[in-house]
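Q: For a teaching session next week I want to show students how multiple molecules come together into a single three-dimensional assembly. I've collected the sequence lines for a complex. Could you give me the predicted structure tokens for the whole thing so I can convert them for display?
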Amino acid sequence: MKKTSAVILLLFLTLFSLPLLVLLLASFVQENGSLTFLQYRAVFESEEIMTQFKNSAVLSLATLAIQFPVSLLGGLYLTKQTKYRAAVARIFMVLLLLLPFQSIMVPVFRLSKWTGLYDHQIAVIFLQAFSTLGPLTVWLFIRSIPEEQWEAARLDTASHLVIYVRIILPQLIPGLCVLGLLCFAEVWNLVEQPLILLRDETLLPASLSLNDLELKNTGPYAGAVLYSVPVLLIYAATGVIFQKNQLHDQSFL
Amino acid sequence: MKKAWEEEIRNAVNAGYGGLKGDKGLTERILLRYQKKAPLSFARKRYAVPVLIASLLLITATALALALMNKPASVSTYGLWRYADGQVTYQGEGDKRPRVILEDENIRFIAADDMETGLYYITRQDGQTWLKNITQGGWAQTPGRTVNGKYNVADLQVTHSVAYILANTAQVQGQVVRINPFVTEQETPVSADGWANERISAFAAYGGTLYAYSAEKKELAVIDLSNGRLLCPPVQAGGILSLTAGRENEGDPLVLALIQNEAGGQKRLLLINARTGEMRDTGEAVPAWADYVNRNRENLYLLGSGNRDVKSFRISALSGVKVLHELYIVNGGSADAPVMEAAIRRFRQQYPDVELVFRTIEDARVVSTELMAGEGGIDVFGNLFSLSTPGGMLLKNGVVRDLTDNPDIQKNWEDWRDLKGLVSAGGRQFGVLRVLQLYAFSVSQEWAEKIGWNIPEAAWSMEEFEALVQKADAWNQTHQEHLYLLCDENTPYFLNQYQTAHMDMYAGTTDFETEEYLRLLKLYKDMNDKGLLYPQENLIGREKNYSYILPANTLLRVTGGGLEWMDQAERVIFPPSVQGLDSPYICVNWYLYANANSKYPEEAEYFLACYSSAEAVSQEYYRNYGQWLRDKALYRDEDPAMAQYEGKIREDTEWVFNEAIARATPMNEIRELFWQKVDLLPAYYRGEITAEAFAAAMQQQAEMVLGE
Amino acid sequence: MKNTKRQTWEIRAAGAACLPGFALFYLLPFGMTVWYAFIRSAFDHRFAGLDNFIWVLQNKYFALGSVNLVLLGGIMMLLSFALILFLAPLLLRHPKIAKLGAAILILPLLIPSISAVTIWKRMFDTNALLNPASSRWALITLFLWKYSGIGSVLLWTELRMIPAEILDAAALDGAGKMKAYLFIQLPLSGKSLILAGMVLLMFLLRVYKESYLLFGAYPSPELYLLQHYMNHQYLKMNFQYVAAAAVILTMAALLFYAAAFLLIKKRKEAP
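A: Of course. Below is the structure for the complete assembly, covering every listed component.
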């Protein structure tokens, strides 16, 4: 039975990985069918693309650096605030999370001009950093922790923050790793926000040229492959953290 | 024993902590503590929280700093050409560093054309001095020409695609000589009454004006090159190393000059009023390495002789212009084109303290956002390359200002042919015309003779075209040599013509499901089945890109473009018309509009009035878009480059084009329908869908676009 | 338990860290969007009352887009959930495969859409007018490939956190693996499922990008979604209709949320 389920799993994973393999293969294939590194060379030699990759990294890391603490604190707020206030906050957060960005694109643009953030990468960073996905996700994770843990820990300290940091968060680390990946992926693939908030082309991220809807600059397959590498690295890093924080040791029982 | 002990601990933990059953983490930690392997972690280390907060603040500060870092310096919109170490480089908008365009060790002087985006240069080749040119894309517009060996070239300037060299001859030192880069005609020294063209030590040519300085005579002269007259009497000036045009202020020509009064002395950047001789120090710090000045539309550059160092300034600021605010022209075409220069000149007479800033925005979402936001950045704009947003719909949706009641704009019509219909919808004017391109048919006279077809001199009907189809098919049936009747575009011309006639985008109505449309579809299928349509996939190279080139064994080709473009064809005739002999012809138009959300609506509308004035339109090369003005004599001399390089426009082409303009109707092109037609047609030709299904699909999609 | 003064301030501080940013960058713009919904257009700020809402609700393409969003979107969500529920326990059962498997499942989310679409166009006939069925499946499979992986990983992560002795206890009580999965593990992982659902819905409402790349701006009526309507109105610069549609969408979501909340509350209160 275990063997069968392993085969089925491998089959599905193979299906999932097929397009990825095709993409990887296409990044080495030239128009005449020969296999070369020319596409990769073109990417590395293109200063424009390298600058865009750098911008993507700056935007993603800076956003995560702000989004994480904001999300953690937001999750705490949604958990510990009075039921009514927290419910109202949650409703608005969920509704605005689901709304397409076109709905607020013009107001966001206007706000960026009023606040002087227009044409600065910080505009995109703040916009994503205060996205509601993080706090809502953390709130959901916290809800899986029994309230009794909070109460038990209150025997030692009256501080919500201390209990949150010392007891609750360590149990959420695996989930937070996935959240981190999700948030990173969201920023990494941003298109509309940098498009309308950044006028200087030297500030634009790689996602714009790689997702060019006008198909003017489809970008090489190599660009798409290289574009995925940082996320794989982050996934690998989070995997290590995940393993370290594995709380269940079957052999212990 | 151990297991029992562990069991006991677990029970104690579970009992003591209520519902913490199964919280193995806590259990584990307690056990580890008991075994002194790890201390209990919670509630003991009070420094953890402050450290955490401090770390978060540090990360946030770092992140903010990263994002707020100074943007890399970039050269302004219209770019800077340089030559150093045998390489010609260009750095344009958004370029972080210069790009190498050309490598040539023998280049002696370079000069950018102030009108087009190309560069001209003097180089030595095969023992001769050559004048050549190159564009940003690295290709040459002309093969180049030699410079008479008697001229020892000391400098080069270019304005309006005409080159001027500062040259020494055996007879005269420091003479400014005019050279046509496109043909090897004799070079001509510039002359102007009241000015001696000799002992010139520094000069500049910009905007059709020559600025010539003689260190020996300490004299600065400004000459209008279009008529060879001094703009004003020469003024006294000394110590000028290099100069260029400043921005005209209140009608006075201004010169920006790099000055060094004594060898090794402090270099300064002065603003000189060429009319009054008044000199003013701009107050800008000039580095010691600066040897000469250069400029593009917006900026002045100080350059060293090695061409590596550069420092830039805004010309308007240096010229002492007090700018009240900026007026943004977006996607309005080249700011250096003569028509735009004329418009700018006229605009500045009325609004001297309004700075015109040109922007290019490629993405329709950005343009839409900025237009709707109304936060500035777009006051006048050109066509959007997006979904169906033709001018009429923009007017209807309130996006653009209604120009019908603007007296300046309406007055311009007195000089124009009756083309108001091209810029109006529902009787209201939505914009001004910027580009007009028509469709005609290129014809092979050889093949017309072969098959015995009389080429129609004027308009002809669809019935006549259908008869031609039969004739061509009959030829193919009886001859070895195969004739293709028509090389069409990606989307069939007649279907586009039908769409133009039957789709009212302003009213939002369309009708593809008619007998007429089905008849046209069946005609195309018939031609395809008979092998009379030239296969698009067979077009390669120049044939593919230049629609005036008839492929081999083809009688007709749909040719769309400007007047000069069409003139490249062997011969052009009117397309046969769907609606009868006097029906309209398709044209593709680009416009300029005034943003309804502009903070400066009067200035925006006035700019459009300037742009559509006879003064500006007459600067447009007649060869581009034909005759828009009533009086053809108003148009300026044909582009010296093109006229002499390509020859005059043929009379028959001119007649067809200008006649078609009179009946021109903007093509109602919806981009999405365009691509869907391209996708559906092969299936229709293969018989996978019927003509009725094709028409129904077009109707459905058009209704979707118009009905949203 | 009532909060102490310190705890109250801590909660306020936590709120102060996230709420102002959320209010400035999301709530305020949404408020402005609501304002746009009640004016004539972005170029004419006169009050329009409910005209925009009436226009949008009466527009047959808004209705078409909404219906398709529910139907096609519903299919995509259901199939995604089915895949998530199918893959997560498999990952749990084979931890060694899961290490690489999770990476494979997450990666599609990060591949630029245009690269994925290029591959999909070779696999499917994406001429929506000629072959709507193939086009529909192209969109559905692309959505499944790109977005269901992260949901699987989320659920898998949650399943790993469930203590093994609970499952042992269930086994002792005679529950098989399927029963334990359906009646113990899934209910305990409810939060992850909600999160996965939220993420999928978020991506569903952004699927315009993939649809545009596959079919162009105007696909066949079967594939015309509400997002098409909103994007097109945006490009036509009818922001008032985009805003009205957004408000209508929000009201609908609110109603759905309220209905779900009441249903859950009723079930909890039921004896």
